[in-house]
Structure formats: structure tokens, C-alpha cells
Design brief:
The protein is mainly α and about 110 residues long. The protein has helices at about 5-15, 25-30, 40-50, 75-85, 100, 105-110; strands at about 25, 60, 90, 95. The strands form two sheets. It has a two-stranded parallel sheet. Strands 3-4 form a two-stranded antiparallel ribbon. The longest helix is centred in the N-terminal third of the chain and has 12 residues, at about 5-15. The structure holds a DNA duplex (13 and 13 nucleotides).
Amino acid sequence: MAEDNFFERVYEVVRLIPPGRVTSYGAIASYLGTKGSSRIVGYAMGAAGSATPPVPAHRVVNRQGLLTGKFHFPTFQLMEEMLASEGIEVEDNKIKNFKEKFWDPAVELSID
DNA sequence: ATAATGACATACA
DNA sequence: ATGTATGCCATTA
């Protein structure tokens, strides 16, 4: 597969995101250890479209809770639609109550 | 191996 | 607060 260890890591974390929650590229990158590679996470997301199984990329947004990647979806409204289906409210391409919906793998997966 | 790109993040004006 | 500039690190050409 074209997905190397790094991409696989990203996919794994994104797939671990519970429904109704969202996370940021930086948070994932930080969890992976490459804190500064927030862009790489987004880059991996680009490959996520070719990843198997598909990852819920719609649950991954930037630090502002902005749906920056919606334009990369098959249909840009799909992302909002899915998030809305998850119970996440989106306004002006931004997630409302983002702070409440925020899911940090470095914390949630480190409960123990 | 070097240069350019990228679904970001942070700093500075 | 908004806009521009630079840094980060992996992938691709």
C-alpha cells in the first residue's frame, strides 16, 4: 500500500474518533509524536480518500474548528451533512461548540 | 539529492 | 481582530 507507517497512524487515530466528536490536525500530529507535522496529517487525509478502510475525515478539522477540508470532499456539503448527522452543529463552515466537541487523542487515549 | 507542495499552526505588523 | 509571512515535516516530481 502507498500508506506508510505515518499515514497508517493518522488513519488509525482518525478512525478512533468517537461519533459526535472532532479533532484537529495538530492534536493528531502531536499524538503521533510529530507535533510540528500538522500539515502532514492533512496531507495524509488527502490520501485518506484512497485509504482502506475509509477514515472519517469529516471529523478532522483545523485548530479553529473550521472545515477547511470540506472542499476536498466529493461534495463539499457532505462534510457538514455528516457532522450534522453526528450531532455536530456547523455554522459558516465552522463547528459550533468546537471546544466541547473537541476530541484529543493524546488525552482520550491516555486516560490510563 | 534538491525543490516544490500541502485538508496546519504560530508569529508579527 | 484580520492579513501576511515563516516554520514544520512527510510526500511527490
